[in-house]
Amino acid sequence: MESNHDLEVLELIRDLAAGKEKAYRQVYERYKVNIYSTIFNLCDDEFVSEEVLQETFIRLWHYREKLTNVEDFNAWIYRVAKNVFLTKIRSLKPSHEPLDLILHDVFFAAMDYKDTEYVDLEKAYHTAIENLSPKQQLTYKMVKNEGLSRKEVAKLLNVSPETVKWNLDESVKKIRKIMIELLKDIPLVAILYYLQEK
């Protein structure tokens, strides 16, 4: 006999397979902590765990229409996360595919950089950065925008690499949280794609 929990998950998956954004957000909220913890236990790296979490849910949205064929969603989503993790550690080359082309694959319609949705993403992103502490802002910009390594940033700021790692991890989490809160009318997958490109 299926439990209420199982029935609730099945209903969410059916709604997600039908392309309902609300169901996608609910699945994200339900699984994000456990998936993050699973990956963190594999690599002991908060930053990598955050990136794998984002990519997992991007893939989930991309394959949403096939979810009705998945017998055990719990096992499936964790397997996706582990596969994303393994792919990530095997390759150090980041994707340079433009945001509009990536979104085209997901929504079947290219997004122009002048589109309202993209402009809203940019505004929310900069608002989120402004809400970081000065040290987090500086660390984030040096690593993400200037492409410096954590060791290089630690040396320039005269702090330990662990401090750089903590500030960067906290920045990524805070930026993602603020953007999701600000952009409730934009599909979550679009926000995650945008942040992945940053």
In short:
The chain is mainly α. The protein has 10 helices and no strands.
Looking at the structure, what is the overall shape? globular
- The average pLDDT score comes to 83
Alpha-carbon distance between the termini? 45 Å
Strand content: under 5%
- Write down how many β-strands occur, each being a DSSP E stretch of 2 or more residues: 0
Which class best fits the helix and strand makeup?
Answer: mainly alpha
**Rg over alpha carbons:** 18 Å
Q: Low-confidence spans: pLDDT under 50, at least 5 residues?
A: 92-113
Q: What kind of sheet is the major sheet? A: none
Helical proportion? over 70%
List the helices and strands in order: HHHHHHHHHH
Count the helices. How many? 10
Helices and strands in order:
Blueprint lengths: L3 H14 L3 H23 L2 H17 L10 H18 L8 H9 L8 H15 L3 H12 L4 H8 L3 H22 L5 H10 L1
Helix pairs in contact: 1-2, 2-3, 3-4, 3-10, 6-9, 7-9, 8-9
What are the defining features of this structure?
198 residues; 10 helices
Describe the structure.
The protein has 198 residues and is mainly alpha-helical. The protein is 75% helix and 0% strand. It has helices at 4-17, 21-43, 46-62, 73-90, 99-107, 116-130, 134-145, 150-157, 161-182, 188-197. Helix 8 (150-157) crosses helix 9. The longest helix is centred in the first third of the chain and has 23 residues, at 21-43. The chain is globular, with a radius of gyration of 18 Å.
